[in-house]
Design a protein that fits this description.
The protein has 8 helices and 39 strands. With 467 residues, the protein is of the alpha/beta class. The chain is elongated, with a radius of gyration of 32 Å. Bound molecules: uridine-diphosphate-N-acetylglucosamine and calcium ion.
């Protein structure tokens, strides 16, 4: 038995009122279609997944090309039945097909496998995955031959429901198993004699049943996983479901999430046990967090790796960074892409860094900008230090050796090298390299005028008494 999976993703998503194709809208930090492909790829190899694209076909293909799936273009979008007609040539090598919808993103691989097994066991021409959600409004309804029988006689869309069918609560998930031969033998019978003048794949239930083929239904274990994303509000609901599911998975693995309903943790994020995540933190993209870390409120981490025992204090914004064991960042620090913070190092409040390596145990605790800097270990960067890395045209590197002390309010004009163990006096503007173990001071010389202030006050007093 050769099994292929077809994903319908050509629709525009009119109900979203968005410029972006529906299947590229994101939940859990990932486009809808990527979620569906990820589930399908747990069941068959990517090469056996055929994605039907149409609306913004090129953008959609580009977004998921690296998954290794195949594509077919449905030039005009004339309905789900029409989409499957367009996919026929690409499916000839298969005996059985599973059809998924690109806008049903919470579907679990286990459920696809259960659908497959049931479909094969029942030797059905068509198997419909169904659910009984709290609110069935808007979905197609599945009409069974009798309430307890698996046999299905038809699927009726919401707007076509007869008054006596309004009470049917079992919905069509838009996910099916098909015997390929039976499907394409009868698919030509689809007619666009409905409200939208489209070819509905759902009509295959009645067509196949009337042709004497076996059409059955199996209910998904969890109704939430087959909810569709057709509007922005539905999208937000699924996003919330997914983030809650991710938080739950992490908590099951020993991560302490203080107010799980307030945090945003994307599906691919990994966190080690005994790490504490405070309310309103966000862990996005491919972020990985070690064990025994603490991520305080309002920190936003994206595509960032933290080793064990790292502390991220309140309101930090960190992107594409690597932070080694025991380091401490923030509060209110901004690490722009390309930073590597060494073991036990500190980045304090109002520090911004970009493409900077701060070595083991080094500290930049206050009010500093570090850009394109290679900083050794045991370095102290004083408050208000600025690496002047940009001359308006080009960016230049700053290199600071181990054990260097940079006094407060220094400007290091790059390209510049501060040798190991050197000192830079506070308030210096450093434009020439500093040799190892030297002291560099570059500021105006201090002038002392003894008694000057006292004299001035005396003059003022004299003026007042004169009148
Ligand atoms: C569909 C089902 C409905 C079911 C619901 C479950 C039909 C007629 N109705 O309705 O019974 O309850 O899904 O979520 O199938 N697509 C194409 N080409 C097209 C049209 C659609 O590829 O020409 C794709 C869309 O991109 C989408 C999927 O098919 O991923 C479903 O289409 P959509 O318009 O969202 O169908 P629903 O109205 O939700
Ligand atoms: Ca839909």
């Amino acid at each position: 038995m050769r099994l292929g999976i077809v994903i319908m993703a050509a629709g525009k998503g009119t109900r979203l009122k968005s410029k972006r194709a529906k299947v590229l809208h994101e939940i859990g930090g990932r486009p809808l279609l990527e979620h569906v492909i990820a589930a399908a790829a747990q069941v068959v190899s990517p090469n056996d997944i055929l994605v039907i694209v149409g609306h913004q076909a090129e953008t959609v293909q580009a977004a998921v090309r690296d998954t290794g799936v195949r594509f077919v273009v449905q030039e005009e979008q004339r309905g789900t039945g029409h989409a499957i007609q367009a996919a026929e040539p690409g499916t000839q090598e298969y005996d059985e097909l599973i059809v998924l919808s690109g806008d049903v993103p919470l579907l679990r691989p286990e459920t696809v496998l259960a659908l497959r097994d049931f479909h094969l066991r029942e030797r059905a021409a068509m198997t419909v995955l169904t659910a009984v959600p709290a609110d069935p409004f808007g979905y197609g309804r599945v009409l069974r031959q009798s309430p307890d029988a698996p046999e299905v006689t038809a699927i009726v869309e919401q707007k076509a429901l007869e008054p006596e069918q309004l009470g049917v609560r079992e919905i069509n998930s838009g996910i099916y198993g098909f015997q390929r031969k039976a499907l394409f033998q009868h698919i030509g019978q689809l007619r666009a004699n409905n409200l939208h003048q489209e070819l509905y794949l759902t009509d295959m239930a009645r067509i196949l049943h009337d042709a004497g083929e076996r059409v059955v239904a199996i209910a998904a274990a969890q109704p939430e996983e087959v909810l569709g994303a057709n509007t922005i509000a539905e999208m937000a609901k699924l996003d919330r479901e997914l983030h809650m599911a991710t938080a739950q998975r992490l908590m099951d693995n020993g991560v302490i999430i203080q107010r799980p309903e307030t945090v945003v943790i994307d599906a691919r994020v990994e966190v080690g046990a005994d790490t504490v995540i405070e309310p309103f933190a966000q862990l996005l993209g491919k972020t990985r967090v070690g064990s025994d870390c603490r991520i305080r409120s309002y920190a936003v981490l994206e595509n960032t790796t933290l080793e064990d025992q790292v502390t991220i204090l309140h309101s930090c914004v960190i992107e594409d960074a690597r932070i080694d064991r025991g380091a401490r960042i923030g509060p209110l620090a901004h690490l722009r892409p390309g930073c590597h913070i060494g073991e036990g190092a500190h980045i304090g409040n109002f520090v911004e860094a970009k493409k900077t390596h701060l070595g083991k145990g080094s500290k930049a605790n206050h009010l500093t900008y570090l850009g394109d800097a290679e900083i050794g270990s045991g370095v102290n960067i004083g408050a208000g230090t600025i690496t002047c890395n940009y001359d308006g045209v080009n960016k230049y590197p700053t290199v600071i050796g181990d054990g260097v002390f940079i006094g407060s309010d220094s400007a290091l004009v790059a390209p510049i090298v501060i040798g190991e163990g050197a000192y830079v006096g506070a308030g210096s503007v450093i434009t020439k390299d500093v040799p190892a173990d030297a002291l560099a001071v570059a500021r105006g010389k201090q002038v002392i005028k003894e008694g000057w202030a006292k004299n001035r006050r005396a003059q003022r007093e004299a003026q007042k008494t004169r009148g």
